Amino acid sequence: MTSRREFRRTSITAAMAALGMTVAALTTVTWPAAAETAYPIVSYVLKTDAPPPPAGLQLVCVSVPNDGAPSSTNCPVVKYKDVTTWAFSYVDNRVSMAPVSYDANNIIIANVEKPGAR
Q: How far apart are CA 70 and CA 73, in angstroms?
């Protein structure tokens, strides 16, 4: 039987892979000419600097994937050119995540559901 810790570790790995695939899919979109980097990077941004999530989504960032882990003040985001992708979770607690991509003006340009991990 799989332990809870191993299950969480696998779920987090799957979630980050899904986020990476979403960013890879977004690279086929024509982006604005000004590019900060030529490739996607993961950086940590203060939770207070997050744009407002779409309806039904929430931002939960933890420093370690354990039961009762305190919330982190920093959240990992994927940045590519002028696009920043945040990983939101659903307020109804479904086993899915929602990578939402924003342009430089915090306007949503992509919002998808990635089932199977949160």
A: 10
* Tally of structural domains, the chain: 1
Tell me the residue type at 74: N
Give the HSE-up count for residue 51: Cα atoms under 13 Å, Cβ half-sphere: 19
Range of 29's domain? 4-115
- Per-residue pLDDT tens digits for 22-65: 555 555 455 555 445 578 999 999 999 999 999 999 998 877 76
CA distance 97 to 58: 10
Please name the residue ranges forming H helices in 44-90: none
Q: With a threshold of 0.70, does the pTM exceed it? A: no
